[in-house]
Amino acid sequence: MAKSQATFMKKQLEKNKQKKKEDKEQRKLERKQNSTGGDMENMIAYVNEFGEIVSTPPSK
User: Fold this and answer.
1) Is the pTM here over 0.85, yes or no?
2) How far apart are CA 3 and CA 49, in angstroms?
């Protein structure tokens, strides 16, 4: 007697879940390696006396 179709489907679903998990982990690592930073210095923006957004701090 052959194995049931339900058992085969369970194995296939488990393989698919594992593959998706591995792919997600791979994409996560790629994003981490290709990131340009994200530290606070790169995120700060200043507004000058004319109301324009600039990347340099105002001079006092």
Assistant:
1) no
2) 76
**Tens of pLDDT, residues 3-19:** 688 899 999 999 999 99
Helix (H, G, I), strand (E, B) or coil at 53: strand
DSSP H helices in the chain:
5-34, 40-43
Structural domain boundaries of the chain? 5-54
- Digit-coded pLDDT (tens) for 21-55: 999 999 999 998 887 766 777 788 899 889 999 98
Whole-angstrom distance, CA of residue 26 vs CA of residue 38: 20
**Residue whose entry in the numeric block shows the structure tokens 């923006």:** 45
